[in-house]
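Task 17 of the worksheet. Students: predict the tertiary structure of the chain below and write it out as structure tokens. Keep your answer in the requested format; marks are given for formatting as well as content.
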Amino acid sequence: MAVTPADRNPTTKPALPVAPVSEQKNASRGLVFSVPDRYFNQLSQMIISTRKAAVQADPKNSVIPNGPTVNAPDGTWSAQRLSVPGLFNLAQANPSVPGRGNPAYADRALNGYAYRITTTNQANSDLPPVIFINGINTSLTGASETAASVGELTGANVDLVYNSSDPAVGAKVTLAHFHEIAKDNANGEATKGIRWSLRHGLEFPFMVRNRVYRETMASAAFGQQGGEWAKYNALNNPPAAQTAANLILDQLNSHNGVVNVAGYSQGGAIGAEALRRVEANLVAIHGRAKADDMLSRVRFLGIGAAAESTDFPSAVKFNGIAHRGDVVPEYFGISRNRRAPGLGAILKALTPGNGWGVEQHVNYLDDQHGAGSAGDPLSERLVREWFGGLNIGEQVIRDFEP
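Model answer:
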């Protein structure tokens, strides 16, 4: 079934928010104590405050569009909503749906919808569109601006899969998960009574409980566990992933050429989830050999992505671009420190002049941080080369200072 522009609003919408984290937590099992809950609440409030400041300072969130068609204020691109084959409203809800106070909140009901982005560069408009998934904390206008930059670089039309997600909510979901694990671990150790060791000295149960809780949470945050769990459970955005999967399957079944897919930031994690769904579908219908043959036609480009090659089916051709100072691929993607990705990301965020690790995350493409912002010429050249068929590999490139 071909993808066609929608001539009216879709009659189905993606599932909306999951229950608040406070409801997800439920009562803790075993012994109940309050100190770790206080740690959790303090962490959550810190994340929310950081999120609000970042969103309010981000110019790409200043315009909230309405209706099935969006046009650039300067006329350089247009976005028309697509009718995508397959259902996405039956997918699990987005665990990181934006909360009130986030400027992207007004667009949350558009999460998982697809838009055909057309730019003034139509040099390759006869080729199948690039499928593009935007990053976290972005309005539809901001996502369309970034997708249009991809269109201008490649000369192809771009099918944008809109991802409406909130980093603070995703972080809280992840914290809530490990909070429960840490409480269980701490309660279990505390039941063993008074203990003594050379490392910790004499410890009473309440001391053991608090220490084990902190150690478990630190291990999740600074080690690999937290980032890995978040990619697959908090940042995967099932409605958007299902739409991307439907678009990929539509291209695989409608032509014999390559299928170009790109994901920026969280779009990398969503793209990986989408291709895992594509793989499951193809294996169920065609068997493993045929599925791998079809998947070998898919080329995925991660741009500052929260994903790496091991997150994708092995037959998919994965390439990636990451700035050295970008905290997102440092924690989730191709440039991460294998032993302590969280610690590496924090150190990058605290590097003087690095803009809390975000500055090098929002300058890969023109207009990525609002209309008129400059993109990195090196990363833009790599995008063009990737679209031209070159295997650019996984490149961690020098930071861009305009």
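Marker's comment: The chain has one domain: 55-169+231-397. The radius of gyration is 22 Å.
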